[in-house]
Specification:
Length: about 450
Amino acid sequence: MSVREYPDLETFIGDVRKHNPGQPEFVQAVQEVAEDIFDFIADKPQYHEYQILRRICEPDRVISFRVCWEDDQGQIRVQRGWRVQNNNSIGPYKGGIRFHPTVTESVLKFLAFEQTFKNALTGLPMGGGKGGANFNPKGKSDHEVMRFCQSYMTELYRHVGADVDVPAGDIGVGAREIGYMFGQYKRITNQFTGVLTGKGLEYGGSLIRPEATGYGAVYFLQNMLATRGTDLSGMNAVISGSGNVATFAAEKVTQLGGKVLTFSDSQGFVHDPDGIDQDKIDWVKEHKTKRRGRIADYVQEFKNATYHEGKRPWSVPCDVALPCATQNELDGDDARTLIANGCIGVSEGANMPTTLEGVHVFKDARILYAPGKAANAGGVAVSGLEMSQNSQRRSWKEPELQKLLLDIMQGIHESCLQYGQQSDDYVDYVRGANIAGFKKVADAMLAYGVV
Ligand code: NDP
C-alpha cells in the first residue's frame, strides 16, 4: 500500500485543530514541524503506511490531576497539575516542569511535542515529555512553595522513574523547587534514584547544568555565525527574559566579546547602552532569582539604563537577538523591526518564542535563525549527562562536561546543515532541525510496528 496519509498540509492541520479544540499553542507547534515534514515524507511511503505523522502528533498519554495545598494563612488552595508523556520511542520521557499561571494543557502539549524532537537532536537516548501546574510561585513564601511541590509530587511520583520519565526544571522551577520535589519523591518511594535532573550538586546534580541552556544557545549562534565567516566579538546583543536561560546566555555572549544591551521580564524591559557586563549580570541573577524582584529595579542600580514598562526589547538595534523568556514573545512585526535595524542572527533560548509569522519573516529575509528545539537543547543534553552520571553513581569534572556540551551543540548544528542546506547555500535551520529530529523518532516508531 502506498497512500499518502493526508492529501495536503491544510487538511492535516485542520484535522489536528479539530482533535485538539482550544489548544492553539499545540496546533502552532505541530504546524511549524509539519510544514517541513510534509514534503520530506512525500516520497517515503513507509511513513504514510504506518500513519507516522498522525501518531507522532498524539501524546502517548496526558495525565492531569488535582494539587491541593495550604497557604500561610491556613486557606486551602487548589491547582491543576499535569504530566504530558509525549513519546518514549528513543528513551525515557524527559522534559521540564513549569509552574506559571499561564500553564494549560495546550502549553504543556506543545512543549512536550517540541521536546521530543529536541531530545532526538542531542543524540542522547531521551524521549519527550513536559509537566507543570497553573501555580504562581511569585510572592509565595518558601514554605508555601515547599507544600505545593510536595503535593504535586505526591501524585506525580507514581508516573515517573529513572527509566520511565525524568522531569527537570523550566519556568518557575529552579534548584529550590527541584530540591523540594526530589525530597518528597525520596520520602514516598524510599528510593534514591535519578528521577529528576537539575538537582543540587550535593545530591546527584551535574556541574554546568544551570549554565547549559544559555551557554548552548550562544554556542549554537557562534556555529551559525561561523558559516558566514564571523563571530560574536564586537556584536551588540538583545536578550529577553532575566531568568536562568537569559542570564547565562548573557554571560557567554559577554565572555565571547559581545555586548548585551537588554534584559526583560513579564512586566517590561531594561536597555543599558553601556552594556550589561558580568557584574551587572550577577546583580540580575541575585535580584531575580534569590530576591525574586522585578527587572524594573535595574535602573535604580545602573543609572544610564532605561526601563520600558509593558514593552519587549526587539526595537533596540542589535546585531544578534536571543529570545530567552517565553513562547510567542516575538511576532511578525518584531521580526521585521529586528531585520530593519540590522539584526543578522537569532538564536532561541526559549521554547517557541517566535510566532509562526515571525518565523516566516526570518526565513524569507534569509538571516541566521535557529529555532529553540536546536538552539536551546544544551540544557536537556546536560540533563541527559546527569542521568548517565546518576546511573554510574559518579560525577564528571567540569572540563569534560564543557567539552561534551560544545560537541553536542556542534553536532546539532551539523544535523541542521545536513537537512537544512538549500540550493542557494542558505541554511534553513528550522527545516534542518525538524527533519533531523523527526527522522530519528519516526524510524524508531517504524521499528516497533503499530504500538
Ligand atoms: P525562568 O523562570 O528562570 O525565567 C523566565 C523568564 O521569562 C523570567 O524573566 C520571566 O519574567 C520571563 N517570563 C515568563 N513568562 C513570561 C511572559 N508571559 N511574558 C514575558 N516574560 C515572561 O525560566 P527559564 O529561564 O528556565 O526559561 C525561559 C525559557 O527557556 C522558557 O521558554 C523555557 O521553556 C526555555 N527553556 C529552559 C530550559 C532550562 O534549562 N531552564 C531548557 C530549554 C528551554 P518574570 O520573572 O516576570 O516571570
